[in-house]
Specification:
The complex is a heterodimer. Helix content of chain A is 0%, strand content 62%. Chain A contains no helices and 11 strands. In chain A, strands 2, 4, 5, 6, 9, 10 and 11 form a 7-stranded mixed β-sheet that branches. A 4-stranded antiparallel β-sheet of chain A has the order 1-3-8-7, with no helix packed on it. In chain A, a hairpin with a 2-residue loop joins β5 and β6. Chain A is globular and about 40 Å long. By secondary structure, chain B is an all-beta fold. In chain B, 0% of the residues lie in helices and 56% in strands. Chain B is built from no helices and 11 strands. The radius of gyration of chain B is 14 Å and the shape is globular. Classes of the chains: A mainly beta, B mainly beta. At the A-B interface, β4, β5 and β10 of A face β5, β9 and β10 of B.
Chain lengths: 114, 113
């Protein structure tokens, strides 16, 4: 089964600073990868998804960008953080479980922008 | 795009009682409906899921029902226990269209001993 790594686990950044969150996946090839953000007390909002290397689709206009330089690497970035970028960022991989396509969640990065 | 609404936002039950959480979705193309349990500070964990060709699925104390015509699905937890306390999320997904999921806003379930 898939294993998803995310780092850092927690991050405190000042407004206006850059951001780079990394996600790597083991145990699968050519996965669909997703970045979700969870604001405090809220559900998960899909930010970006990727079906392959160099292929990025953005779901909502925002201050963030994503890249997929390798098959099992997914990066979330920002040039200048805003207060509203605070949240719990989850990298998700869609993989096979029997005949189903299940979503596997990474451990998440908790970002606080001050 | 898909829109998922989840109710109630908070639910408090006595240990041993049943809990029901309901979700509605808007996109008839959605064909996969997972439910997740999220404990404080942790990642969501899949607890049960259902595909659109099935009306009901049960796994021990947890069951999910799906009404495709009405576009709603529900999570049922019987004989609740304090360790069931968590935030529960429903989601609707189109497994064909890149597998994107739209999540509900979550239900905070508290089971009182």
């Amino acid at each position: 089964s898939q294993t998803i790594h995310q780092w850092p686990a927690t991050l405190v950044q000042p407004v206006g600073s850059p951001l780079s969150l990394e996600c790597t996946v083991e145990g699968t090839s050519n996965p669909n990868l997703y970045w979700y953000r969870q604001a405090a007390g809220r559900g998960l909002q899909l930010l970006f998804y990727s079906v392959g290397i160099g292929q990025i689709s953005s779901e909502v206009p925002q201050n963030l960008s994503a890249s997929r330089p390798q098959d099992r690497q997914f990066i979330l970035s920002s040039k200048k953080l805003l207060l509203s970028d605070s949240g719990f960022y989850l990298c998700v991989c869609r993989g096979r479980r029997g005949s189903y396509n299940e979503q596997f969640f990474g451990p998440g990065t908790r970002l606080t922008v001050l | 795009g898909e829109n998922v609404e989840q109710h109630p936002s908070t639910l408090s039950v006595q240990e041993g009682d049943s809990a029901v959480i309901k979700c509605t979705y808007s996109d008839s193309a959605s064909n996969y409906f997972p439910w997740y349990k999220q404990e404080l500070g942790k990642r969501p964990q899949l607890i049960i899921d259902i595909r659109s060709n099935v009306g009901e699925k049960k796994d021990q104390r947890i069951a999910v029902t799906l009404n495709k015509t009405a576009k709603h699905f529900s999570l049922h937890i019987t004989e609740t226990q304090p360790e069931d306390s968590a935030v529960y999320f429903c989601a609707a997904s189109d497994l064909v269209n890149a597998g994107k999921s739209t999540f509900g806003d979550g239900t905070t379930l508290t089971v009182k001993p």
